């Protein structure tokens, strides 16, 4: 007998191909990486709200994450949550589902898998060096 209890909806992880398809159908991409990671390149039209911050003691959870998400998205919005490799996004997706967001998917493999499949990204403009 399984005594394990579920805390609401389960995280559904989709691969980058399905994520790309859903984005073309109106889903929004929530990038939960740090601002520094996001600035180095991200999925086109992504919105960045860091789930964790880098500190001298290591990474700590963003205490304002849910408030920041709720200031931009509604609980009925269709979201794909991604990070660098797919770990932080599982935690962020869990928090969103527990906050009663209805249409949220975790993108397995994260930004690394997105780039690895050759999908379009937005990167910073290189700095011009004048000689």
From TrEMBL:
Residue ranges of every copy of the Rhodanese domain listed in the record: 23-123
InterPro entries: Rhodanese-like_dom, Rhodanese-like_dom_sf, STR17/STR18/HARC1-like
Recorded superkingdom: Eukaryota
SMART domains named among the record's database cross-references: RHOD
Protein name as it appears in the record: Rhodanese domain-containing protein
